[in-house]
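Me: Here is a favour to ask of a fellow structure person. Could you put it straight underneath, so I can go through it closely?

Assistant:
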Amino acid sequence: MAAGIVEAAADEGLSAAQVAAARRAGRTNAPVTAGTRGYGRILRTNVFSSYNTILFAIGLVLLVLGRYGDALTSVGLGLVNAVVGAVQEMRAKRKLDRLQLLDAAEVTVVRDGVEQRVPAADVVVGDVLVVRAGEQVVVDGPVLTGRAAADESLLTGESDPVVKDPGDLLRSGSHCVAGTAHQRATAVGVDSYAGRLTLQARADTTEATPLQRRIDFVVRLTMVLVVLMSGAILAQAFLEGFSLLRVVQITAVLSGLVPYGLFFLIAVAYTRGAARLAGRGALVQRVNAVEAVTHVDVVCTDKTGTLTTGALRLDRVDPLDGTEPGPALARFAASVTDPNPTTAALAAALPGAPSELRDEVPFTSSLRWSGQVTTDGEAFVLGAPDVLAPHLGDPDAVADRVEARAAAGLRVLLLARPARPAAGLRGDDGRPALPDLVPVALVALSDELRPGVADALERFAADGVVVKVLSGDDPRTVAALAAQAGLDVGEPVDGSAVAELADSADSADNAADNAADRRAALDALVARTTVFGRVAPEQKERIVASLRRGGAHVAMLGDGVNDARALKRAHVGVAMRSGSAVTRDVADIVLVDDSFAALLPARTEGRRIIDGIAVSMYVFLTRVATQGLVIMAVTMLGLGFPYSPTQVGLTLLTVGVPTLFLTLWATPSEPDPDLLGNLARFVVPASVVTAGAGTVVYTVLYQGILQGFTSGRTPEQVIAQFQSYTGLTYGTDADFAEAAATLGAQTGLSTFVGLASFVLILFLLPPHRFLAAWTAPVPDRRPAWLVLGLTLVFAGVVGTPALSSYVGLTGAAPPVVLVVLPALVCWFAVTWVVLRFRVMDRLLGTDRLPGRVGQPPS
C-alpha cells in the first residue's frame, strides 16, 4: 500500500470526511491542464524577438518624427512574420490543450457503504470504484474483488483483453470489456498512467528543420555584421553632425539589411506545400513537417494499422484427424458471443449457423485460447499451438507444421477437441482449464497489407531511407510479414532485449562508464535491426531516441495511443486517420486515406520547398551583401549615405516579389548538402562585383551632378538642369546642390542594383546556355518571363513622377540613364566571367573544396 492512501473495505469505501480531507490535500482526479506554453508567452516570444525589438524602436522614433511611411517600411515585414508564427503556435496549443485520454463520463464509487455516481474528476486517492463492462478505467489501482477483462489496446497496442484478478493492477485509460470488479484508486490525475501519458503527449516538442536552422544562422550572422557596421557608420554620422532624423533613417536602412523576409517566405512555402498535400492524402498539422519529411532517412512504423489494414483473412485450414474441419470451425465462429478479429475472419470465410452453448470460455491474452461446449455435449478449443500442445497426446505432433506456417508470416491457431467427450473446459474452482486434447486442424490466418505499401517501401529504399518495424506482435510473424512487403528483415529482435539494455543504460545506479557501454550496445542493436517484436510503448520511444543519438532523422508512423510517445520523440510524427484521436492530435502529419504511400508526395513537396527557398536565399543574400558593401564604400568615400528608408522599400519589387514567385514555382530536386558553402560561392562574387559597379555608378552621378557635367558650369546651373529632369524644386545654396547630387546618385544606384537583381535571377535559373555561367539551363521559362515583367514594372515606377517620388527617386533623368545602362552592360560581362570561370574560388583557393552544386555546363 502506497504511503498516504487510506485503507477502506471494498463494500464500505471512504467516508465523507476522508473524501473531504483528500480534496483539501489536492489528491483528486482532476483533468490534466498543464503541458503547453501560455498564449501570452507565445505572443511575447514571437512579437518581441530581438530583431523585432530593434525594428519597433526605430519605428517609434520615426513615428515621433512624423516619418510614417519610413516607419511602416521598417517594421511591417517583421510584424507580419511575428503574427504568422504566433498564429501557428496558438493553433497547435489549442489542439494539444484539448487532448485528454480519459472520458468525462461519471463513474461509480463506494462511499459510506453506498454506491454513488460522481464525475471522474471527483474521484480521490483511496476511493473504491466499481468497474463494470463497457466503462473506462479512470484511475490506477489494484482490483480488490471480482474479475474484469481489460482492453488495454489504447495504452499498449495489445488488442486482446487481459483478465484482471484481485491484486492485479488496472491502469487508467483502459476499458473494461467483461466482468465487474472493485478497484482502489492509488494514482489519480497527473500521477496516473493516463495523466502522465497526457502530459507527455501535450509537451511542446516543436523543433526547427535543417533549412530553418540554416536560415536562422544566416540571419543571425547578418545581424551581427550589420550591428558592427552600424556602429562604425553611426559614429561617423555623429562626428559629422548628422541630424537626429538622419541618424534614425540610417539606422532604419541598416536594420533593413537583415533578410528577415526569408522567414516569411518559408511560412508561405510551407502553407502552400501543406495545401498541395491535403489533396494527396496527407493532412499537415505542423507546417514545417512538409520540409522535415524530406530529411528523413529512417522510418519507424507500427505493423497493425500502418503496414497492414488490421483485418485478418483466413489463409488455409490443414486437417489433422482425417475429418473435414470446415463445418466445426464455421459453427465455432458463428457461436462466439464476443467476436474478435480472428473469429470475424473465420466467420467471413466459413459462414455457418450458431450452436446453442452450454458453456463458453472467451479468448483473453492471458489464456491465449477460447472454447465452447454445446448443449448436446460437443466441445471445441481454439488457441495458440504452444499453449494447447502440452495437452496433446504427442506435444510435438504439430510443431513442424506450425513453425512452417509462422515462418511464412501467418498467424497459426490450433483447433482441438477434448479426448474424453464428457470433459468440460473448467476446473473444480470454475476457472478455465484445458483437458486432454485431440488435434483437429491447424488454422492459418494472414494480415492484409495496405494497398501501395510494397511499392512505397521500394521507393523509400531507392531514396536511401531505412524502414524499421516496431510491433507488439511475435517477432517471427512481424518479420515474415515485413518480408512480404519487400523489406530485408535480417534477424528480428524481441522487445525484452531493448528493455534490458535501455533500463540498464538509463539507471542512475549504474556507473557512468557502464551506462555508456549499455547505451552503446543499445544503439548498436537498434542500428543493425530491422524488425522489433513484442515492444512496449516506452521501448518504441527508446528505439527512436537511440536512432536520433546516432544522427538519424526519424519519422514514426503509428495509429494507437501506444505510439504517441514515439511520435512525439521523432522528428516527424505520422498518424493514420483511422487511429486514435490522441495519436492524430499529437502527429505532425495525418494520412487521411490511411495510405503509407502518401508520405512519398510529402517528400517530393519538401524537396520543392527546399529548392524554392534555396533560390530565394541566393537572391536575398546577394541583395543584402551588395547593399552592405555599397554603404561601406560610399561612406568611406565621404559621399553621404547611399539609401533612404523609402528607397529600401523597392526591395519588395526587386527581391520580395521575385523570390515569392520563385518559391512557388520551384521544382523538386535533391537537397543541397552544402547549401551554405554554395551560397557563399555565389553570393560573395556576385555581391562584390555588383557593389563595385554600384559604387562607381553612385560616385559618377554624385560628382557629376555636384560639379557639373561640363567644365565651366556652376552648381546653380547644374541644379537648374536637374530640376528640369526631376520636377523637384531646389534653391541655389550649396547644401541644396549636395542634396540634389545625393538624390540623383541614389536614383542611379537603386536603378542599377534593381536591374542587376533581375538579371541575377537569370544566372540562377538560366533559360539559355548564353546565361549559363553558374549552372545549367532550366526548361522552365517562367522565371525569364518574370524578369521581363519585373523590368517593365520597375521602369514604369522610375518613369512615373508620382511613383518615383513616393519611393524617393528622381525619375528617369537622362544623366541617370546615360550612366546606368553602360554600367549594367559592363557589370553583366564581368559577372558572367567571374561566375563562369570561378574567379573568386580560384583566388580564395576554394575551387578544390567538395560539395559544390553550382557548376557551369561543359
Q: What stands out?
A: The chain has 32 helices and 21 strands. The longest strand covers residues 437-449. The mean pLDDT is 80. The first helix runs from residue 16 to 24.
